[in-house]
Amino acid sequence: MNNMKITGAVLILITSWLTGIMLTARLSDKENTLREFRQMFCEIKRRISYEMTDMCELINTCTVHYLKPFTDNMYNCLSQGKSIDESVQNALNNTPLTNVLESDEKDFIVGVMSSLGMADCEAVTEITDSAIIRLDNYIELAKENRQKNSRVYFIVSLYIGFAAVILMI
Amino acid sequence: MESTVLSIIKCFGSELFNSLKDTDNDINEIRIRKDRPVLVYKSNKPYIVTKQGFEQFSLDKIKGEYIKINASQIKNAFAELCAYSVYRFQSDINNGFITVNGGHRIGVCGTYIGENGIMRSVRDITSLNIRIAREYKECSRKLIDITGCNGGILICGVPSSGKTTMLRDISRIFSTEKMLKVSVVDERGELSAFSRFENSFDLGFCDIYCGYPKQKAILSAVRTMSPDFIVCDELTGQDLDSVYLTVNYGVKMIASVHCDCIENAVKNDSLVRLLKTGAFTSIVFLNGSVPGKIENVYNIGEVQKLYE
């Protein structure tokens, strides 16, 4: 009986520890996704300035590997004749990796992409520059949030685990 | 109606699309003005677009049920026509037009944005004129039979008289049947309708300089492609140096200019200067009422007598 209790307690503690890790990982996923979007905007700026690639082609051949599901989804929508806002919105909502983003971050990405589609060359540089600055802020916030919350998540989940063990015993 | 034209019309909403989707292929122009009736032009005659199709234009019809397009529809359609890449068309927009898939040219009219006398862009677009490009194979056969392929040809005509169509067909015939080396200077993308590495129109075995300014393209062509002929749309007085260059390199030129008749041609200084370069041995006038129909063909000797 004691052995079973000890095994149960260990299992609860491991589960709560893993929950803490998962919650922390979700925070770093957000940070990574925002970093990849930053990289994508840098690529968009470079390719529009030097190659004048059109938006559809640019999205289709974007080299930011981590965002491939997002860019593929967006490209499919654009190819079907959907507007740029609709395509970005659709890609953001239907790609699991972008689910970690908050709604204001998603709105910001939609806004930037649709402004890019309507902008002239000079404006493209200005839009992407300011988007990168804003993304840097989002990334900094996400990083602070991760550092602060990861410890909290970890400790809280362990405490919950201990509480559950005590209750069980 | 051709699929590329239908995809343009679709950008302006389902109402206009439903009205025009079943019409035949002989529309030359579709004119869209903010909050005004949409007009289509067939054989240079205006027709007003209604929900049922289109009818001969008259002022009474304006009071009736017609289709109109608002500012926001124009803005959205313009972005879609530019494939949400307005930056890519910037220099064309500054020149007053964009060329879309299928080689159709869309004239753009709105409010000028400039700085220190240099145009930067156009905002508040209020009018779009969609000129439908077509390929009429063999339309230049008669002209080639008359002029041969031994000298330069200058094709003159009013807007929508079929100058570009004629140039396209000549390029195809010269580069395939006659096996001549032809370089096509397609500054506006109308001749080849080049889009994503595909030519919508058949230009045979031509070397196509797409989007190049005329001077750069002609210089590159004569230096590197050793062409027998250079084909070029809409020459102006500013292109005089480039025309001299082709003469000096011994390359023949086939080009088009805006002009309605020989009497006006010899009064036009820049046109006379073009003729004096010696680049053209035949001057062809197209009939404005029927696209591609030849009105007159003059030998340079005959024209020289008129302007000297």
What are the key terms here?
heterodimer, A: 6 helices, elongated, B: 308 residues, alpha/beta, Beta-Lactamase, Rossmann fold, 32% helix
Could you explain how this protein is built, in words?
The complex is a heterodimer of chains A (169) and B (308). Chain A is mainly α and 169 residues long. Chain A has one domain (2-168). Chain A contains 6 helices and no strands. The model of chain A has no long low-confidence stretch (mean pLDDT 86). Chain B has 308 residues and is α/β, with parallel strands linked by helices. Chain B has 2 domains: 3-131, Beta-Lactamase (2-Layer Sandwich); 141-307, P-loop containing nucleotide triphosphate hydrolases (Rossmann fold). In chain B, the strands form 3 sheets. A 7-stranded antiparallel sheet of chain B has the order 4-3-2-1-7-6-5. In chain B, a hairpin with a 2-residue loop joins β3 (45-50) and β4 (53-56). In chain B, α8 runs parallel beside α9. Chain B is globular and about 55 Å long. Classes of the chains: A mainly alpha (169), B alpha/beta (308). The A-B interface holds A 48, 52-57, 78, 81, 83-84, 114, 116-124 and B 7, 10, 76, 79-80, 82-88, 90, 120-121, 196.
> How many individual helices of chain A?
6
Total count of helical runs of at least 4 residues of chain B: 12
Average the pLDDT over all residues of chain A and give the rounded result.
Answer: 86
Portion of residues in beta strands of chain B equals 25-35%
**Structural class, judged by helices and strands of chain A?**
mainly alpha
Straight-line distance between termini of chain B:
48 Å
Main sheet summary of chain A: none
- Overall helicity of chain B: 25-40%
| CA-atom Rg of chain B in angstroms | 20 Å
As for the number of domains of chain A, it is 1
Unreliable sequence segments of chain A: none
